[in-house]
Specification:
The complex is a heterodimer of chains A (176) and B (423). With 176 residues, chain A is α+β, with helices and mostly antiparallel strands. Chain A contains 5 helices and 4 strands, in the order ααβαβαβαβ. Chain A has 2 domains: 55 residues; 116 residues, OmpA-like domain (60s Ribosomal Protein L30, Chain: A). The chains are: A alpha+beta (176), B mainly beta (423).
Chain lengths: 176, 423
Amino acid sequence: MRPASSLSTLALVVSSAVLLAACSSVKLDEKPPVEEKTAKTVAPTDTREVKTVETKSVDPLDDPKGELAKRSVYFDFDSYIVKDEFKPLLSAHGRYLSNNKQRKILIQGNTDERGGSEYNLALGQKRAEAVRKSLSVLGVPESQMEAVSFGKEKPKALGHDEASWAENRRADIVYQ
Amino acid sequence: MMNKFLQRSIVLIGLLFATLAHAQLRVEISGVGATQIPIAIAAFADESLAPAQVSAIIKADLARSGYFKVIDTGGPISETAAVNFNEWKSRGADALVVGSVQRLADGRFDVRYKLLDTVKAAQISSLPMAVQPQSMRLAAHRIADDIYQKLLGVPGAFATRIAYVTKVGREYRLEVADADGEDTRIALRSNEPIISPSWSPDGTKVAYVSFEQKKPIVYVQNLITTQRTVIANFKGSNSAPNWSPDGSKLAVALSREGLTQIFIVNADGTGLRRLTSSDSIDTEPQFAPDGQTIYFTSDRSGGPQIYRINVNGGQPQRVTFSGSYNISPRISPDGKTLAYIARRDGKFQLHALDLATNQELRLSDTAKDESPSFSPNGKYIMYATETGRRLTLAVVSVDGRVKQTLSMQAGDIREPTWGPFMK
């Protein structure tokens, strides 16, 4: 026999009962014939049957559509200020971290390719630090965060144009 | 006449490279010094006995220096042969180099050379050496150094080495090569970036920043034993290592306090001491040769500029005032010249500043220069740049006239650092 959840079995039983009751007071050609057929073929339920329900807790961090799916804060050229549009993102991560004290994050700051490696490492650090400060203000403890920089060494976008540069002016939240 | 000499030198260098199986750097000369000493270099008697052709290496070194015009000679001339000085003078040579190579019973080679002054008809120098076969190239470089010193009054840097970072595909490598780009060796291979290599003063160790642990950490690696020591892995980013002249300490840039600041640490990682205290970025520390002053980059006045501070702390003094972006300070071995990268009109270009007169000289015409490094004799600066669409190294003399590029067959080269004189 094909396995069915208890819920769908119940639904089937209920709809069958409704249809059987309806049949006596309504004309045959007003009802879709398929339903009548189905109602007639239901087998009697075993009242001692137990069917398994699978359930598990979903870490909101793993939800690709959740508010924690976005991990990147983007910055304007020569800027180290977290823009308002990223405040909701940071609030979401701040809440999660406060509720999950065992979780730690690395905040990795990046710059676009223009300029020297070491100075850009320090500029990337400023971006990571800006995100860290925002999270700190939201109540996330120091012990759960570390701000580091990749400078210009690990660009995500490899072009040499403004679009690529904008993509690389970024701080990423990386859960450890 | 000049073109012919250059062409011959480049072909010679090309031949040298063609004979070697492993990857080496390709050197191309594009500029020579204002004056060049005409010098004839004979093949050394029996030099084909040895694994490296000594006279060819000497010719390539002196040609590459930009200060010599190498004159062709005929066959080999031993240092014991009688020399017709007038003949060499009439061929335009002010100096003549002769020598010989002999195999010794214990497997070493006896290398003898003489530097002769054709005008004075006298010997200027000689340097006999007994050399292991694997050290023949080094012996040739030492002879070239001797010639350079005797004729120019400045020590030669041909027997030195360079370190740099390459990226081939997804792999990053810290490599070491002779100053002529030969005999490349891989010191470190990684799948994460490596930046800011810095030679120890005794030339046996290199400090560098590695991202292998997903954040920048400063390591010191002994090139001989391969032992690696973490000398800075504090919270945040750790970078920009620079050795003190006596090799006992390193200056580093750490973000452990929030903003990047300069600290000093012992060479074994102990004894951390903070040096700068500002509300801005302070980074790229560089010890001056006297070990008393540290130059560094700071954006405390808005854009990044170069400052100096006493090694014991105190008020920093600003050094650069032209333009809004000056970074990557490097001090010449005599402490008198500052090399740095300045962004002017959107181009990042190598500059040199005379610290006494404050005169600034732009040294390149390219637009993406980075990481300058002085040769230990102070005559040249090696730096990273973009040539065509690839990242290569370049060398320029401090007066801007002598120019070369060093490139790889495939891949990018960055972050050069010129090694010290070694015994």
